[in-house]
Every structure is written in C-alpha cells, then in structure tokens.
Amino acid sequence: MKIARAIVVALLLGPVVPVAAQDFFEPIQDMVDELTAKPAPRKAVEPPAEEEPPVPRPRPPSLPETPEVEVPERPAPPEQPAENEEPEPEAEPAPPPEPEPDRVYQAACPAVIAGLVEAEMAPPLSEGACGEQSPLVVTAVLSRGRMVPLSSPITTNCQMASALPGWVEDVDGYAGAMLESPLAEITTGTSYMCRPRNGGDAQFTSEHGFANAVDVVGFTLEDGRKIAVTENWMPAAEPEGRLLRLAHDAACGSFMTVLGPEANAEHSDHLHLDMGCHGQSCRARICQ
Fold this sequence. Notes:
The chain is of the alpha+beta class. 25% of the residues lie in helices and 20% in strands. Strands 6, 7, 8, 9, 10 and 11 form a six-stranded mixed beta sheet that branches. Strands 1-4-5 form a three-stranded antiparallel beta sheet, with helices on one face.
C-alpha cells in the first residue's frame, strides 16, 4: 500500500520535480508500468497428437501339418496245423432271421363261452377250396347238467357246435325215459374233411370241407349198451331202432341237412348232420 501511495504522489508531483529527482523516480515508474501492464494472452496449449497404434506385423505363413500316417499292422501268418492234425471246419454263416408270421384273427364262440360244449380253438384251416377261419375241436356236449363226451374229438365250426347241445339233450332224454339209461357217450365219425359231396355233383365241395358237418355212428348208454346205426337201424320197432329214428327226426329240427340210411347207400352206417345252405334264403331243410 505504501508503494502505491508513493507512486500516486510521484505522478502528481512529476511536472514540478527537478531533473535530479526525476532520475530517482524513473525506476519506480518502471515498476508501476510493469504492475499496471495487462498480461499477454496465453497461447492455447494444443494437446499432443495421438499416436497411431502400431500396425501388427503379419504372421508368417504356418507350415502345413504333416498328417499322421497309420502304418497297417501286418497280419499274423496263419497258424499251420500240426502234423496229423485236421484243420478246423469253417463256421457256417448264420441263417437269415425268419419273418414274423401274419397275425391270425379268429372269432370266439358263444357256445364255448357259455359252457354248452367243451372245446378248444384250433388254428385256421385252409386247403384248396376248403377251410374255416375259426375251427373248434369239440370233445363233449352239455346235456341235463353234465358233459356227455364224444368217442373222438370233432373239428367243426361254431355254428355246428352251437346246434349240438339241444339235439344231444333230446336224445339223452329219450334214452333215459324209454331205455332207462341216459347217454354215456356219443360215437362220432367224420367231421372236417376236404372232399366233394357224396351221392351228388362232384363239382361241389362237401360241407365236411368247411367244418360244417358231423357224422354220428351211434351211442353208448350208461348201462353199457352200445347202439350203432349199422346194427340197430333195423328192426325199427326195437328200442334201439326207435332211439336211432328219434335221433334222426330230432336232428331235422336242429340242423339244415340230415341224411340217414334211407337217404342213400353212402349213409347206411351213420347219420350225417350239417348246417349247409339250401334255397335262396338258406332256410330250406333236407331231412332224409
């Protein structure tokens, strides 16, 4: 502050100060000029230029990898059979797998399910013009609360198997009432057989060829008596002959075809029973 006041006084007394005093104040004037002088503008400092990133040096081309070569193993020399030793036979190639058989579709029989006949399902039958898709092997027939066995199993269709129980029950009832001995067994003959008709046009296949027919040769009673068509059809008035005729006539109400000894010579020793179709509506019956 003192320097500033001195400077002000010097400025005011400048014109009246003698020359010697002027030399005294010149340094002070220079100091005042320096203090009052405006500072020179600063130059803007330019930021340093960014350095360019170094360019990567190109990689030298890689040498191709040398593939690994597999050296095949040398097969071992075949073993030489020892002296007096026979070489082993080469194994036979395995047979090709057998194709799966086609699925078999068969229908169940209500008579078997209900227990009216004792039977088992058999594989389908196919033989030329003959055959049956769902054959049954029947071994016994229900009558009056018990199973009456067959002398030999019969192969038939469900339709024939279903017609047997009603007919067997009629014959069994008559044998018990008139001969005082019910049935113990039914003697059977031919059932399924692929052949033409007997006593007719040979161009037609017999109902036996469709498992649609059964031949009955006779009956055995529980008291041991045996009744056969060949031996007992005649005389008709005898109890055994009457039983066979009743069996024939009762069959005409259960089956579509009934042929006995009076039909032709081919049926002289049995009763032929079948469910064949007769007439346009398949409702006609043949009973001979």
